[in-house]
Each structure stands twice: as structure tokens, then as C-alpha cells.
From TrEMBL:
Residue ranges constituting the Protein kinase domain according to the UniProt record: 1-252
InterPro entries reported for this sequence: Kinase-like_dom_sf, Prot_kinase_dom, Ser-Thr/Tyr_kinase_cat_dom, Ser/Thr_kinase_AS
Organism expressing this protein natively: Gossypium gossypioides
UniProt KW keywords: ATP-binding, Kinase, Nucleotide-binding, Serine/threonine-protein kinase, Transferase
Pfam family, one: PK_Tyr_Ser-Thr
Protein name: Protein kinase domain-containing protein
SUPFAM superfamilies, alphabetized: Protein kinase-like (PK-like)
Superkingdom of origin organism: Eukaryota
Amino acid sequence: MSTGETVAVKVLATDSKQGEKEFQTEVAMVMLLGRLHHRNLVNLVGYCAAKGQHMLVYVYMSKGSLASHLYSENHEPLSWNLRVYIALDVARGLEYLHDGAVPPVIHRDIKSSNILLDQSMRARVADFGLSREEMVDKHAANIRGTFGYLDPEYISTRTFTKKSDVYSFGVLLFELIAGRNPLQGLMEYVELAAMSTEEKDGWEEIADSRLDGKFDVQELNEVAALAYNCVNRVPKKRPSMRDIVQVLTRILKTRHIKKYQMSLSVATAGEVSVDLEQGETKIPITVHQRDESMDSATDTFEM
């Protein structure tokens, strides 16, 4: 752009009614979200609909999609710590859509290829081509979305709700845990594992082999238990996105408390300080740091 800013341009198909409809839907929904800005949504910069060209201009997400980091050999494996931060980022974006946007918005196509990462490895939810306002067009004759992530209730009733997004998010959580594509039997794998787990214990058996065992077992089991609640066959028994954000935030706070307690035993005077007013632990680090505050937790991660 003339400002020197790097952007991403999405060119939509114009040779069919479907392409025209997708363009109009995405522009309408993303323009709404642009007015209700959130850091965990990919922001629309502008759009063009002239001379037969339909283009959407987005903020450029330099680290690409979450899917590419989970499955491409061109990327180093994502650490467990970072995977949980990404999960919280996505949850915050969806919570905003469900509870912060007016009217509420249901995404309808949450999947790893629709989660994009910026230079700081912060995740943002992208692609609103299938999104709908909650009170409009709740019933559709055709199933829309990506198989492997689709809520079984939506498939059987053709009715989508906020809990349909929650189901897809649960699948995404298991994808982060297991490093397995939902289109390649992820949920069957999860159900088999569930038969041998006891509530919150035993989920480490499905952990992504690329993690090489480098994860906190208790933390992984808590995230997996949350994911399993999200994919409950009964929509009413699934948590809300607000509940999910609270659980993930608590898990990360617990992580930082543990790190702080461990640091007390090895740190020399002046290396660790606690701001009692802010409740924030300050620990010198050498790894990449995200510019984000999370109540009493310092938002850092390892790659």
C-alpha cells in the first residue's frame, strides 16, 4: 500500500452466483466486525468490487495459518506453551463474536486453516464467508462448513447456534493437543482415548509426538477435559465461549504461579519481583515475548 503497510488480498470467484454471494456475505459481516474491533479477529482494511473484480484486503498475518504450523515440515513444531496461548486467543475472538458483537455473530467455520498468526504468534480468527448474525437465517437447506469440525447436531437439524462454534472449537483444541487432522479421523481417535481415560486423567496418551513429551501433564489433561466438554453430543451441556476463556485463563495463571514459585528457589536477589498492586510476576526471560497482559499472568511463550 502507499503507506508502506503490507496487506493480504483475497480475490473471490466472480464466475458464479456462489462467488458473488460469498463476497457480499463476507463484506457485510467483516464490515460489521470492523466497527467492533477485536485483536483476535483478522481485520478488514478495505474491499474492491469494480470491473468484475471482487477483492477483500486484510491485515497481513506474516506467520500464516495454524494448520501450516501443525502439519508442515517447513515449520518447527509449536511448543505446548504456545499452543495453549493460541487456544486462548481463538477463544477470546469467538467470545467477542458471541457476546461482544451486536448482534451476536456465529462464525460457522472454525478450523486450523482459518486461524492465522501474526509476527508475534498471536492468533486471530479469519474467514467470515459463512458467518451469520445469530438471529438471521438460522436454518439452511444445505450443510455449510468443514467436515471433521461440524457439530453433529447441526448436521442432523440444519440449525446452527453458538454451541455449534463451541463444538468446532473443541475439535480445534484436540487438534492442538494431538497434532492430528480432523479430516483424518481425529475425533474417532479421541473417542477411543476417552474410553481409557478417567475424567481428567490419561489424555497425555494422545499428545502430539512432535511435542517430544515436553508438556505439563496436568495442564494437558485439563485442556483435553475442556475440549471433551466442548464436543459433548448434547449442545446444552457444552460450555459457553465465555466459560472456555475463563478456564484457559485459569490454566495459564496456574502455569505462571508455578513458574514463579520455581524461580524463587533459584533466583538471586533482584532477579524476580512481584508488583503487589498489579498482581504481576516479573521474571527476566530470553525467549520471545508477546505484548499482551493477562491479569496476573505474564504473557510469554517458547517456540
